[in-house]
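re: the backbone from monday

yeah here it is again, tokenized this time
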């Protein structure tokens, strides 16, 4: 079964997408900071393709298990040659 694509408008659909929950906790995300940066990049491109007004949100963090997680992800994103031209693959941070 193939569902038809229904365009998102200002009054319908989901516009805010938090990419993962607490990716800095091993019980929720077992990948590395670089893996999360890649996930965020793919989600950013897919979300913006489907809805240019989509709001892509860096997942909320706990900070105690991996206190350097956010910096490590930002460093991985910063090393990507497409990051600066694409809002560093996020619109907000939860």
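seq for it, each position gets an aa:
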């Amino acid at each position: 079964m193939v569902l038809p694509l229904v365009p998102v408008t200002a009054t319908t659909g989901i516009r805010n997408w938090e990419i993962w929950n607490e990716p800095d906790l091993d019980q929720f995300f077992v990948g590395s900071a670089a893996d999360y940066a890649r996930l965020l990049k793919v989600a950013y491109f897919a979300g913006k393709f489907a809805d240019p007004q989509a709001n892509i949100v860096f997942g909320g963090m706990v900070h105690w298990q991996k206190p350097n997680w956010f910096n490590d992800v930002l460093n991985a994103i910063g090393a990507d040659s497409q990051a600066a031209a694409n809002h560093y693959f996020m619109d907000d941070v939860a």
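The mean pLDDT is 90. Helices lie at 33-50, 69-78.
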